């Protein structure tokens, strides 16, 4: 079976899984694709990104059972899953910071396997995510997302995407490819207002970085596209990341990330 058809089958299975665990009394209002699938197509390292909009908060038991099943279907021979749920009334009307009801992501697998259960919490990262969902307009279940979600003001989008820059930098060594690509996307979004795919954002940034800072970002892009094998030896990764952060600060203005 072609990879595209397998991804479609996996996505359909995830929608069914969400509805089975969370759709008591019609609580699942909508399920939406976002991320790479709607920004130019899935790449070799892309997650399956889904947003779920709920009518009411989940229970601890629902979150426990959903997490247990996602551990069995995410990653392995299939793609990793990033699944986020919000309660409609927590994000519409819009308020900052927005509140997240549930999060599953492979970077949290160790904690989930030890018994941790995702809890609701404020999450500024929802601002770019909801913006992507609204722009993609890709319902997998339910009505168009604009019927359930409020638009994110530009100022809150800019504030949200820069808020996580210090944490990104802290993860540079274990997650080099993703950190460099995400920094490029933050810079691109601040300057242009568009949320590009990671490889498209890297293309944009590579055209604007001085030549000496380009090789690590170019390698990150090539690995993301499956064109090269990941190997950071001999590359000035920290210098590239620091230059991207300087560009982000300049684009954001005084009081930018990490100030």
From TrEMBL:
Keyword Transferase belongs to the record: yes
SUPFAM superfamilies named among the record's database cross-references: Nucleotidyltransferase
Keywords, sorted A to Z: Antibiotic resistance, Nucleotidyltransferase, Transferase
Catalysed reactions listed for this entry: spectinomycin + ATP = 9-O-adenylylspectinomycin + diphosphate
Gene Ontology molecular function, alphabetical: nucleotidyltransferase activity
Ranges where the Polymerase nucleotidyl transferase domain occurs: 18-90
One Pfam family this sequence matches: AadA_C
Annotated signal peptide: none
Annotated Adenylyltransferase AadA C-terminal domain residues: 147-245
Protein name: Aminoglycoside adenylyltransferase family protein
Lineage: Bacteria, Bacillati, Actinomycetota, Actinomycetes, Kitasatosporales
């Amino acid at each position: 079976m072609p990879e595209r058809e397998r991804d479609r089958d996996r996505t359909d299975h995830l929608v069914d899984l969400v509805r089975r665990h969370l759709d008591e009394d019609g609580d699942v209002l909508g399920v939406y694709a976002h991320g790479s699938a709607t920004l130019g197509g899935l790449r070799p390292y892309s997650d399956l990104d889904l947003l779920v909009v709920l009518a009411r908060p989940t229970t601890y038991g629902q979150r426990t059972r959903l997490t247990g099943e996602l551990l069995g279907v995410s990653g392995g021979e299939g793609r990793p899953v990033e699944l986020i749920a919000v309660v409609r009334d927590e994000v519409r009307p819009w308020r900052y910071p927005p509140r997240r009801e549930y999060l599953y992501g492979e970077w949290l697998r160790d904690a989930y396997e030890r018994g941790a259960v995702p809890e609701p919490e404020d999450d500024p990262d929802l601002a770019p995510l909801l913006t992507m969902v609204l722009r993609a307009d890709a319902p997998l279940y339910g009505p168009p997302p604009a019927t359930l979600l409020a638009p994110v003001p530009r100022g809150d989008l800019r504030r949200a995407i820069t808020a996580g820059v210090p944490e990104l930098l802290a993860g540079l060594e274990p997650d080099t490819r993703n950190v460099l690509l995400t920094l490029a996307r933050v810079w691109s979004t601040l300057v242009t207002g568009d949320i590009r795919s990671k490889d498209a954002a890297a293309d944009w940034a590579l055209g604007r970085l001085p030549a000496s800072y380009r090789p690590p970002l170019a390698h990150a892009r090539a690995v993301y596209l499956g064109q090269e094998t990941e190997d950071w030896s001999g590359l000035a990764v920290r210098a590239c990341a620091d230059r991207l952060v300087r560009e982000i600060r300049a684009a954001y203005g005084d009081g930018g990330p990490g100030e």
